[in-house]
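Q: What changes when NAI is included in the input?
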Amino acid sequence: MSKSFDVIVIGAGPGGYIAAIRAAQLGFSVACVDEWKNAKGGPAPGGTCTNVGCIPSKALLQSSEHYEHAAQHFADHGIEVKGLGLDVAKMLGRKDTVIKQNNDGILYLLKKNKVAFFHGRASFAAAKDGVYEVNVAGAASEAISGKHIIVATGSNARALPGTPFDEDKVLSNDGALRIGAVPKKLGLIGSGVIGLEMGSVWRRLGAEVTILEGLPTFLGAVDEQIAKEAKKAFDKQGLKIELGVKVGEIKTSKTGVNIAYTNAKGEAHNLAVDKLIVSIGRVPNTIGLNAEAVGMALDERGAIVVDAECKTNLPNVWAVGDVVRGPMLAHKAEEEGVAVAERIAGQHGHVNFNTIPWVIYTSPEIAWVGRTEQQLKADGVAYKAGTFPFLANGRARALGDTTGMVKMLADASTDEILGVHIVGPMASELIAECVVAMEFRASSEDLARICHAHPSLSEATKEAALAVDKRTLNF
Ligand code: FAD
Ligand code: NAI
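A: The predicted holo structure follows.
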């Protein structure tokens, strides 16, 4: 007899482990299966996010930012640094410790919530009388069964056709997070989120970084004014970004990688680098799931087809996170996981796609929620815009980082906030207030009338709200 559960969650990334915990909180017996292995072959729950994504990239962004501050900015504060050195192995070791703390934290949380954790690859075996049989192939293989299945199997890096990742010269996000020594020249293909974050890490540590981007516009999904401001800052830092390129043949040798490409003017060029990171998006992961055994529908991109409530085409089978439509973000996966667990319990779980924040953790940080000015124009919405530069914010001056601005967009007649776009220091934290405001359908006047601590960066948000009504107090 296989062990049976009310709910089986496949995948313990942010979508999966959070769904498992919420389902357990709601009184279900829950199993969570994840195949990720640590260096010793043991379980490493947390998925892409914890092992090769959000967490390790932020650890390296922090370390590299400290290094750049020590090298370039401490002197402005009257702090002299002599003999500044870099120990890449130690930096990577610290990052690995942070990963392990998160892996262990998730194992603890699963145990605390009485979720049965299985280490191995889960695949559908059969569906009988409303019960799904799932095989777990791990150190010890076993069969389990469940009434409800939540698939949260995430995504993998997309490779360029004909150029597979070898994780030595041609790197995915995985290899990009464990380059053993700072490359003299680093190339990246794709100036999206990973390209900018990982490009920033290795540039700060001393690499000459060139990013080749296929699209003619920089960060097309970001508000144009904000993207322009960010590009100016990246140019100043020496992060080379070539837009509108067409990547041709890529040749790998013992010493490096040569990328043939044509630039926006159609001129042929070669880029010779020591390492190449390919960051051109990610593909949903259903490898090994044996979705065919139960007839689960996938779309042409390989994503599991779900409706607005994350229901698949199969009764009581749900899917959340990167493996389904929508933005590939950890917090989106988590929200879907919670909502699905609540729906299984007969509750009304809800995810508001209009208020999912985005953050790019570069310096300056870029963060936004809601619609951009371009989108409002395209949608024919009459709006008012207010901007406030960090240059005029006392805390930003004291920090020594006055790059960027807060931009607020509000409905021209109702004043409801429709979007907030930030480029500048701690944008990742500042955006939270704007998400709350939009969730409560606040007007720009609501934000403008709220008392914000002085001196704080958040005053720039209040001032941007005042700017919507053309009445800034400090600019
Ligand atoms: P995943 O995290 O991919 O987890 C899926 C899990 O399922 C994995 O552990 C996998 O091993 C397991 N699995 C798959 N198939 C099976 C199977 N058949 N049996 C058992 N287990 C299986 N997002 C943010 O919001 N903020 C960030 O700062 C951020 N930074 C990122 C940086 C990088 C470099 C990358 C690559 C991504 C980043 N992301 C970030 C995106 C984020 O990592 C993903 O959106 C998020 O991890 C998706 O969660 P998920 O649970 O859907 O899938
Ligand atoms: P992305 O979608 O952000 O960017 C990919 C870029 O590559 C795009 O600008 C695209 O135009 C370009 N591109 C695609 N094919 C190309 C080609 N053949 N030649 C040249 N350019 C090409 O994808 P990325 O950076 O790989 O990240 C994947 C996802 O991971 C992100 O979309 C995001 O969802 C998530 N992520 C989130 C982070 C965060 O929230 N801070 C950090 C890192 C990743």
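Observations recorded in class: The chain has a mean pLDDT of 97.
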